Amino acid sequence: MGRQPCCEKVGLKKGPWTAEEDQKLVTFLLTHGHCCWRLVPKLAGLLRCGKSCRLRWTNYLRPDLKRGLLSEQEEELVIDLHAQLGNRWSKIAARLPGRTDNEIKNHWNTHIKKKLKKMGIDPVTHRPLHAAQSDEPLIHQQQQDPPQVRQGRCDEPKASSQGPAGANDDEDEEAPVSAQPQGAASHASTAAAVSPSGSSPASASVATPGADVAACPDTIDLFEVDVIMDMDWAGILSSSGDDGAGINVDLFDHYPGDGFDQQVWM
DNA sequence: AACATGGTCAACCGCAGTCGC
DNA sequence: TGCGACTGCGGTTGACCATGT
Q1: How many CB atoms lie within 10 A of CB A159?
Q2: If we measure between CA atoms, which residue out of A8, A6, A27, A18 comes closest to residue A209?
Q3: Measured in angstroms, what separates residue A264's CA from nucleotide C13's C1'?
Q4: For residue A66, what are the β-bridge partners?
Q5: What confidence tens digit (pLDDT) does each residue in A98-120 have?
């Protein structure tokens, strides 16, 4: 028997997020954090599944996200990391603070791939195209092993299995920069890192969190995302009913007075 | 000016891994 | 130990926008 779908599909909205939905989600997460994503949409008053909320948050709404094109340096790093890690975008993203796996994946597929091909390099093997089948050494020298990780995680037994090469599977700990994939990455640095360039088409209509920070209540340090994530959910849940169905939380109650200007988010 | 084509990127889908009971 | 629930990840899709004809 198959697993239940991640959410009851009935009545749930799909497709692009509206500014209003973004606002609800951001407001809720910044206020309460999330205990389990499944509950977030219910508590936040969204007709979305938790998965969709998580994706929207991690790929677009997180305050510590950089926006705009990858710099030359970042691009080089991506190529380098791809040569070592293969299509493990989340691992690669962990090395680029403020960038998401989705963003890097898209950039790879649309820009870097072409660029490499133009340069005569096979984007998969990172070898010169004409020598793709030969035993010629890889372009990126730091590869001790052939790209055994090739396409995705399925090739390795599992990350936690203390992989064959301990040296290789602990990228996480040796990551020079904030390797935490989630908001934990860089509270202090996030403020500086946030650069809501708003170059994305969608960003014109949705929140640009970095800019909004100042408008949020001072009771919440918006960059303490991971702290927020540890907030008292039990209390929230109990105060809002436990079946989640009849939850009726006024999201903006948590913003004292007019300290939070909803319009700022738009 | 209208249409066609290509590029970009946000969002979805489904599978795999992890955790708790 | 097995099972189910939940989360995370990578691949893919489709809508939107820009450019070319």
Answers
A1: 14
A2: A27
A3: 32
A4: A195
A5: 888 899 998 888 888 888 877 88
What single letter denotes the amino acid at residue A138?
L
Say if residues A213 and A63 touch (Cβ distance below 8 Å): yes
The one-character DSSP state at A71 is: P
A119-166 residue pLDDT tens: 888 887 887 776 544 444 444 444 433 333 333 333 333 333 333 333
Quote the CA–CA distance of A242 and A236 in Å, as a whole number.
Answer: 9
CA A228, distance to chain mean position in Å, is 17
Q: Look at residue A121 and give its three-state secondary structure.
A: strand
Identify whether the C-beta of residue A153 lies closer than 8 Å to the C-beta of residue A73. no
Which residues 166-225 on A are within 7 A of strand B at the CB atom?
200-203
**What pTM does this model have?**
0.63
Integer Cα distance of A62 and A28 in angstroms: 12
pLDDT < 70 stretches in chain A? 1-10, 130-266
The answer to whether some atom of strand B lies closer than 7 Å to the beta carbon of A51 is yes
Structural class in CATH, domain A72-174: mainly alpha
- State the residue for tokens 């690669």: A92
Q: Where are the domains positioned within chain A?
A: 19-64+197-265, 72-174
Closest nt by CA–C1' to A49: B12
Q: Give per-residue burial for A59-81: e unless 16+ CB within 10 Å, then b.
A: ebbbbbbbbeebeeebbebbbbb
- Closest among A140, A156, A137 to A148, alpha carbons compared: A156
